[in-house]
Batch of 2 targets.
Target 1
Amino acid sequence: MSRAVYPGTFDPVTYGHIDIIVRAAQQFEHVTMGVLRNSAKTPLFSTEERVKILEEVTKDIPNVSVTSFDGLSVDFARLSHARVIIRGLRAVTDFEYELQMAQTNRVLAPDVDTMFLTTSLSYAYLSSTTVREVAFLHEDVSKFVPPYVAERLQEKIEDLERKRRESGLLSDNK
Ligand code: COA
């Protein structure tokens, strides 16, 4: 059975990631999405929230499942009985980092390969960081993420702002 994993931070998942998920699901019998728990990044959404969001946006793709993982992506692939790690490439700027990661993974686990899918041109500019920035400025993110993600972003930001107001870190008009 051909299985693949698609690991990432997904903070939050965007239409660019979804483009890759849909296309990977057409190539493999099963794709397991892996939300990395302890990344160097400090995510806006907790691991559980990111898993829940991914589950919601992929619920209509029957051969995609979502889980979280710790440690190496190659170990996550092996645990998922997958021989392939999917990664999306948006532009040449992604290439150097992704190549280095794929080569390290190949040394760590010669039985696991990395497969790159080029992100569709219409989403090549997207990143989770810019989506978060736009959301923090209370601007419309509907071109970047599905409605469910936009709602979770709005809730999260309002919650953060409320907590900051309560702790005196934000003025009342924010
Ligand atoms: N569309 C839109 N955005 C995309 C994208 C796409 N198709 N593909 C990547 N991105 C963006 C993301 O939005 C994200 O943006 P941000 O940096 O602004 O948040 C960025 O590209 C990369 O995010 P993501 O794809 O979620 O991956 P990552 O770089 O955060 O995580 C792992 C990469 C999880 C695969 C990697 O860190 C890993 O394998 N970690 C485990 C340890 C390990 O095995 N390391 C490798 C050997 S040393």
Note: The two ends are 52 Å apart (CA to CA).
Target 2
Amino acid sequence: MKNKTSIQGSWASRWIFILAATGSAVGLGNIWKFPYITGENGGGAFVLVYLACILLVGIPIMMAEVFIGRRARKNPINALSDLAEESEGTRKWGIIGVMGMLSGVLIFSFYSVVGGWVLHYIIAMLTGDMANVTSDQAGDAFGALLANPMTLLGWHTLFSIMTIVVVAAGINKGIETATRIMMPALFVLLIVLLGYAMTTGGFAQGWDFMFHFDFGQLTWNAALIALGHSFFTLSLGMGTIMAYGSYMTKNASIGKTVLTIGALDTVVALVAGLAIFPVIFANGMDPAAGPGLMFISLPVAFGQMPFGQLFGTLFFVLVGVAAWTSAISLLEPTVAFLVERFKMKRITASIGLGLVVWALGIACLGSFNFMSDVTFFGKNTFDFLDYITANIMLPLGGILIALFAGWVVKDKFAQDELNLSSTVFKLWNVSMKFTAPVAIAIVLYFLINPLQ
Ligand code: PHE
């Protein structure tokens, strides 16, 4: 055990790992999805459950994923198998990695459709198409985009190609460069937007909506969505962080690193919410508008502020980059597996996988037009894939990873990687053995058997 490096290479330093993992974590989940699901689930109480899930379930599981990857220095399937063997368990644990790779493929197929919307909005902002739109006009423009499969296909294809190119280029050249400059820039622009939101007159209402905890509002379904989102937003439960961990240097502290990533991800989501909801309320729009929320509210905001065209363009460019660095990380575990297990060339593996996810994406973009009557359990393909991956597959992956790290891997091996003080290690261990799996199981149980 304890291989020195992965055959894929390694991050230049602890900071590069933080950047890359943050690049994976911060994405459409934070800026697009978090605000709209908060809106759909009534605000405050949902936000509180989400924060609790990040802290109590997400962070400890992220530590587990990083150490599993770093100890084995292999793709998630082989990492889980090797670590199981080292602790005298069965290699069958690798199956969690298989499920994770499937999740990655399914998530990518709708993720890149939304990535495509973002690319479309960059151009719409740049050309001034959206200047001074009213909220109704912005809603119509978004509706018109969704109704047009060829436009959607074009953008989805471009987004898929951009992603495949970087994955094919490998971890150092591709992923690092994109993250280093763009992440800080995205943050600065979010603050600018937040500043604007404060001037809209809707800020108090927006704040109240997000931080006023009314537990009467909370349903098991909302709790499940909050839990599922904590996995989605931190890129957990599917092997991404394991794969990235396998490129991490040995001397870096896993605990501190993971806390930094979790904090950055959470702050971006909260600031995005605080930038969007005031605009919604100030313009009398509906916070529960669903997936179009950001695409309808922000053009209105940019249309009204000085230099809105410039800021609007920049903003969508940065959201595009955030989506891009996340999309890359959805494919990385599977590409690493194909390269290591079947000795494929990275470029062949990337293109092959890319074609599969691109084709699946067509079914997702068709959900809004030519395939709108195809439904699974009452949801269109796009919503269905979003729902089962984030709310079922990732939490299930999370339970299994926690049980694996807590019960299968011997404490001495875990502690050898994590290097925590003995109290913190005990807390982490209890969370892996009991708290995290039980919490996830309860939420899943009540989803299947709702209370009256
Ligand atoms: N965390 C990413 C986001 O919030 C999405 C993602 C999920 C990426 C799972 C990789 C793995 O947008």
Note: Residues 228 and 395 are 6 Å apart (CA to CA).
